[in-house]
Amino acid sequence: MAQGTLFDTEPDPIGHHGYAMTRQSDPTTSMAAAFKHEVTGKAESNRRIILGELERHDGQTGHELGASTGLGQVECCRRLSELLKDGLVTRCESDRPCTVRPESKQMRWWYAGE
Questions:
Q1: Which residue from 9, 45, 54, 98 puts its CA 20 to 30 A from 80's CA?
Q2: CATH number at residue 98
């Protein structure tokens, strides 16, 4: 019997409490990558890194968090949306320019506590 691969497994899009969330329109490879990111613990580890950074320095943009954590803006924004759903962070608009991308107005993220 041949051993299955990660790509043989259908990701369960029930949310980050089970597996990483994906859109139904995402390619299978993206779903598999999101699934792997969750089951290896990497997504949870990154959520903890982001929360820790916001505890220390509230009110950062996704770009600022990406730079300060080393995770990058895309990864931070993916994890922030999950943290928002859990009520662990809040967001709001701000007039302060982003220190990483000052030409654009971006949402600020705030630690909501536990």
A1: 9
A2: 1.10.10.10
Q: What is the domain count for the chain?
A: 1
Distance CA 52, CA 88 (A): 11
Tokens found for residue 75:
């990864």
pLDDT digits (tens, 9 = 90+) for 18-38: 446 777 888 888 888 888 888
What is the pTM for the complete model shown? Answer: 0.75
How does DSSP assign the chain, residue by residue? -PPP-GGGSPP--S-TTTS----TTS-HHHHHHHHHHHHTTHHHHHHHHHHHHHHHS-SB-HHHHHHHHSS-HHHHHHHHHHHHHTTSEEEE--SSPPSS-TTS---EEEE---
- Does any domain span residue 7? no
